[in-house]
Amino acid sequence: MWLQLLIAAVFIAMVISLAMGAGFLLRDTGSSRRLLNSLKWRIGLACLLMALIIFGFWSGQLG
Length: 63
Hints:
Pfam families: DUF2909 (PF11137)
Order of helices and strands: HH
Transmembrane segments: 6-27, 39-58
Keywords: Membrane, Transmembrane, Transmembrane helix
Organism: Vreelandella sulfidaeris
Protein name: DUF2909 domain-containing protein
């Protein structure tokens, strides 16, 4: 139960990071690093999400 909630929270954080990155892409000038930081967060969250899903299947808590 907790693992599923954690996976959902990480996924929602990824979607928020994606929306923030799109906003930075439209608003910022070329010298801003906010878009790059948003991408770094999204990659980190994606790795965490994959690790949680793999752990869930390995431990038998998912599927």
